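ESCALATION

Customer reports they have been waiting on this structure for their group meeting. Please prioritize. Original submission:
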Amino acid sequence: MKKILSLILFLFGFFANAQELKIGATPIPHAQILKSIIPTLQKEGIELKIVEFTDYVTPNLALANKDIDANFMQHKPFLDKINKDRKLNLISIAQIHIEPIGGYSTKIKSINALPNGATIAIPSDATNGGRALILLHNNGLITLKNPNNLNATEFDIIQNPKNLKIKPIEAALLTKTLQDVDLAIINGNYAMQIRLKTKDALILEDSRSPYVNILAVRLGDENKAEIIKLKNALQSQEVKQFIQDTYKGEVIPAF
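Update from on-call: job pushed to the front of the queue and completed.
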């Protein structure tokens, strides 16, 4: 009985002294990956609290406002753009994985069947919109003035032989408009939420993508002990194996 009581008191003291670390994430795959490291961080004296978001902007504002301690839901080009637009001081401290962006359709089975005048929905934010246009360029559907410009817009299209109609829509809503357009360019995390597979994509980003998903923190917090522990846990062999076993190529480790 004394041993049991001692164990209870020990555990109570451990969790009472555990440091809470709040991290913002989108549900799939980011929050799922984070849940896999909760036991690891508990052993390090950290209680990881995952705050889920459904967009890309709010988690950055929450981080800047110190409502959370880190976020894991975006790639570096998006972070760079929102830092510039919103005058934030957030930095990337770790590369974790790639979610290939792809073109999906319920109306055609092959990209060669895309009709003249087809409507293509792309993410409305600048970085993912540019990413979608580069994907269209790389597949010969349009020609961009500079295909290396990650912030390309519709105004950078110099050739559009099929007179495609480009329709910017908020990234989180693209899956809901899939039935209404000929082709939708959807971010990997949102595609997975409705069980779309990369094999379903008519066009797909390749492994040379610069859009690696990152762990972001406020400038000046990168050397905090708890942040370093979080970074190390996310870049562990266990997480790499979790990603490979869970997503089977839909998400690719980048470390």
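Sent to customer with the following note: The chain has two domains: 21-99+211-253, 102-204.
Escalation resolved.
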